[in-house]
């Protein structure tokens, strides 16, 4: 795509929220391909990002962006890379918002290790202080726990195979998007990249676990996976998450499920108090998200604490176990998660992560 073509698209997508026209798949693919090349004019790029935020992207556009990213930046997407770097197991891909959390504890490391110890492997991935929140993400909690996060792609895959829990760093597996961090910060608002980077799926898993604020967004994500020509996801479970992350929100919470071949997603509500989480969002707030989340992770896995954080970890682990097929229901997954925490197996997984290099 020539540099002027990105600017030319502005007449289509940038005429305002009501009059803007949607791009087709090929236009969206070509636009992001050009952006990832590093040749986009900074002014045109900023305008393009803001215009797409105004008009809201369709699933077809998001699929074009996603596939351009997986073809041109995500190194594990090509057949050659998959053969080298995808784990031998089929983990649950946890696609949390890369811009992280700033107020509540990040419980996904603990929940993932519980899931892994129960027999359902998990993959997480994140960047480093991604715009716009620039909050605490998976890599920051893992670093606080003494786990190496600056891993070669093959090492990330080996971590999944040997521990059942693996971390992929954005700068390693998605360098084209990582290179855009400064420009994303300068534009001052969230862009479509905040959405598609959660769907990168660096391990080419067939199960995706994610979160949403509103059900309409969950439907858009599912439709994006349907429209994608590179996605390997065959099953997706999404729920309303704390701060947009993949930690379930306390209280009445919507859940959406989808399987390949289904025309529609299935959505329902759960009351987390019925699953042991009988408290409010404020009860999960912490002062230092990275450091406090690491302390909570270790104390829950060791059995030292049996409180609201332990209950929240158990339910979040149950979702991962259920999503990956390790339990026939969320209730069964919760029982498995609690048993796994009590027998100390998940703490062994943390020890293995610390030794992994």
UniProtKB/TrEMBL annotation:
Q: Where is the Glycosyl transferase family 3 N-terminal domain?
A: 10-72
Q: Which UniProt keywords apply?
A: Amino-acid biosynthesis, Aromatic amino acid biosynthesis, Glycosyltransferase, Transferase, Tryptophan biosynthesis
- Gene3D superfamilies found in the cross-reference section: Nucleoside phosphorylase/phosphoribosyltransferase catalytic domain, Transferase, Pyrimidine Nucleoside Phosphorylase, Chain C
Q: Which residues form the Glycosyl transferase family domain?
A: 109-346
**Single GO BP term:** L-tryptophan biosynthetic process
- Keyword check for ATP-binding, yes or no: no
| Recorded superkingdom | Archaea
Could you state a single Gene Ontology molecular function term?
Answer: anthranilate phosphoribosyltransferase activity
Q: Which GO terms describe its cellular component?
A: cytosol
- The record's region (Disordered) falls at 1-20
What is the designated name of this protein?
A: Anthranilate phosphoribosyltransferase
Gene source species: Haladaptatus litoreus
């Amino acid at each position: 795509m020539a540099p002027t073509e990105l600017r030319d698209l502005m007449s289509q997508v940038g005429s305002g929220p009501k009059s803007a026209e949607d791009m087709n798949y090929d236009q969206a693919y070509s636009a992001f391909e050009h952006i990832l090349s590093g040749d986009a004019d900074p002014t045109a790029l900023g305008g393009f990002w803001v215009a797409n935020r105004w008009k809201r992207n369709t699933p077809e556009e998001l699929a074009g962006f996603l596939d351009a990213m997986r073809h041109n930046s995500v190194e594990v997407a090509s057949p050659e890379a998959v053969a080298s770097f995808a784990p031998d197991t089929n983990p649950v891909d946890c696609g949390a918002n890369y811009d992280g959390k700033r107020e509540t504890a990040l419980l996904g490391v603990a929940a993932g290790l519980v899931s892994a110890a129960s027999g359902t492997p998990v993959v997480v991935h994140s960047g480093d202080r991604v715009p716009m929140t620039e909050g605490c993400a998976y890599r920051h909690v893992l670093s606080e726990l003494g786990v190496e996060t600056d891993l070669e792609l093959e090492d990330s895959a080996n971590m999944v195979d040997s521990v059942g829990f693996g971390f992929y760093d954005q700068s390693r597996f998605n360098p084209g998007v990582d290179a855009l961090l400064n420009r994303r910060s300068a534009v001052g608002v969230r862009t479509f990249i905040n959405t598609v980077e959660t769907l990168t799926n660096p391990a080419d898993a067939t199960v995706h676990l994610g979160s949403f604020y509103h059900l309409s967004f969950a439907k858009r994500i599912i439709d994006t996976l349907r429209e994608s020509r590179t996605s390997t996801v065959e099953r997706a479970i999404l729920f309303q998450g704390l701060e947009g992350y993949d930690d379930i929100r306390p209280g009445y919470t919507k859940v959406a499920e989808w399987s390949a071949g289904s025309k529609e997603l299935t959505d329902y509500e759960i009351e987390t108090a019925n699953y042991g989480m009988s408290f409010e969002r404020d009860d999960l707030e912490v002062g230092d998200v990275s450091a406090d989340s690491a302390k909570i992770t270790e104390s829950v896995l060791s059995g030292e604490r049996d409180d609201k954080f332990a209950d929240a970890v158990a339910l979040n682990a149950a979702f991962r176990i259920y999503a990956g097929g390790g339990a026939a229901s969320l209730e069964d997954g919760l029982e498995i998660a609690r048993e796994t925490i009590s027998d100390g197996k998940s703490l062994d997984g943390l020890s293995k992560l610390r030794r992994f290099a």
